[in-house]
Amino acid sequence: MSVRTRFAPSPTGLLHVGGARTALFNWIYARKNAGTFVLRIEDTDHTRNTEQAKQVILDGLHWLGLDWDEGPQKGGNHGPYYQSERGAIYEEYLSRLEKAGHLYEDNGAIRFRSPREKVVVEDEICGKIEFDLTNPGTHPDLTLRRPDGSWIFHFVSVVDDIEMKITHVIRGEDHLSNTPKHVELYKALGAVPPRFAHMPLILNRDGSKMSKRDEGAALGTYPEAGYAPEAVRNYLSLLGWSPKENREIISTEEVIALFDLDQVNRRNAAFDLDKCFWINGQYLLQMDLARYAELAIPFLEKAGITWPTWEALERVLTIVKPKVKLLKDLPEWVACFFTDALTYDEPAVAKSLTGEIAAERLRTLSDSYASLSSWDAASLEFSLKETAVKLGIKTGELVHPARVAVSGRGIGPGLYEMIEILGKERVLSRFAKGIAKAAGA
Fold first, then answer.
1. Is the Cβ–Cβ distance between 192 and 165 less than 8 Å?
2. Of 242, 353, 390, 424, which sits with the fewest C-beta atoms within 10 Å of its C-beta?
3. pTM check: above 0.90
4. Which helix (H) or strand (E) holds 221?
5. Which residues are CB-neighbours of 144 under 8 A, at least 6 positions away?
6. What is the mean pLDDT of residues 321-325?
7. Side-chain half-sphere exposure of 145, counting CA atoms within 13 A
8. Which residue in 257, 259, 111 sits closest to 197, CA to CA?
9. Contact at 8 Å (CB) between 259 and 28?
């Protein structure tokens, strides 16, 4: 039987990283087994569902690179893929349960009469678990439809998994207690339950359960901050699973090749945004320039930064790439290359570009640079160090004022590479402005 997994979120708010991990593990398992990954939107709660939340789910999965094989925007042979459009199917299954004597009415609600048995669940992650449903006091009969006619999650989820031929239900451990009730429904409908796999919860570092309000909890904050999708996929895959040798940088292709459900940890996963940040930095550092530019350009365009040619942009991205950890910070690093209207960081000016001494040192360096016949990083470095020796000062006492003068900032990429790219005319012009600023301070 071909593997069919599903991600079935409710569009009631932001897409949580817990939901994103659930989607990722289902997607990985389907890809691992040459199966089918289904996206189903469980939007039966009309009071809480919003169109905006539906779009957030679709956009979040697209950004993560989790392409679904069946579902919204794709179609498929088992639709509709919005539960709000599947009412007739639920009515049919409800009728089947009613005819078989499994239902009764309770104050307008339709409830399922439990057979009051012990239910054994063979979980792919948690192992064999026995649930005792014989006591109605601790396990009351399940409501399938509310008095207002709206459907309860437990019923419609089971019906959809049957209809969509889902073979593996991979979800969070918080759903484990629901599973024996679902097994009862499968049995009453004459259907074979799918394989269940309940993943460990994601906890904050202090051991508390991660909520939607916690930092890093909303997936939408990652593209806004300038994380690379492949880095976030890498990090999410490590929340409850790990490859051998405790590797932290692992490609999606490798995860798919190595992943299996019996390797998912039983212990709760600890969410660490600092680790995700570090992984992202590693991905950006190692990324080829074409992919880097693909991710970077939207941030530059949003900041209103334009560049004359691709070659000019490529040279700049090459030298700033090792420094930038989040792409939202990229405009600050590259703005000085594409505009002459510098914005000076005043603390940096106060530290390195203030007073007549700083002005005189920069003036001497400017004269040295003006006399250069070769304008390349090596020649620029040699000239600056030679000037520092003549002035009897440390190299840094020239590097820092020069950097602030040409970029307006106290930090940046390699100074000599930056000056080479800016060109002789622009650098000498900025030195002149920097000298005037220092002397006038």
1. no
2. 390
3. yes
4. helix 221-225
5. 94, 97, 103, 110, 111, 112, 151, 152, 154, 155
6. 95
7. 17
8. 259
9. yes
Average pLDDT, the chain: 95
Please say whether the beta carbons of 144 and 158 come within 8 A: no
User: Distance between CA 275 and CA 270 in Å, rounded?
Assistant: 11
Looking at residue 406, its amino acid is V
Residue 385: active-site member: no
Residue-wise pLDDT tens digits, 179-224: 999 999 999 999 999 999 999 999 888 888 877 777 888 999 999 9
Residues with Cβ within 8 Å of 361's Cβ and at least 6 positions away in sequence, in order, are 391, 393, 397, 398, 401
CA 411/CA 352 separation, integer angstroms: 12
Question: CA 209 to CA 241: how far, in whole Å?
Answer: 18
Q: How far apart are CA 105 and CA 214, in angstroms?
A: 41
Contact (CB, 8 A) for 363 and 399: no
Q: Distance of CA 142 to CAs 106, 109, 153, 327, Å? A: 11, 10, 11, 49
Q: Return d(Cα 263, Cα 124) in angstroms, integer.
A: 9
Domains of the chain: 86-199 (3.40.50.620), 221-285 (1.10.1160.10), 288-331 (1.10.8.70), 346-440 (1.10.10.350)
Q: Which two tokens stand for residue 150?
A: 């709206």
* Contact assessment for residue 387 and residue 362, using Cβ atoms and an 8 Å cutoff: no
CA distance 384 to 441: 24
Q: Looking at the predicted structure, is the pLDDT value of residue 25 above 70?
A: yes
Structure tokens at 247: 């590797």
How far is CA 341 from each of CA 132, 330, 411, 426, rounded to the nearest angstrom? Answer: 73, 17, 18, 12
Q: Which of 74, 118, 212, 275 is catalytic?
A: 212
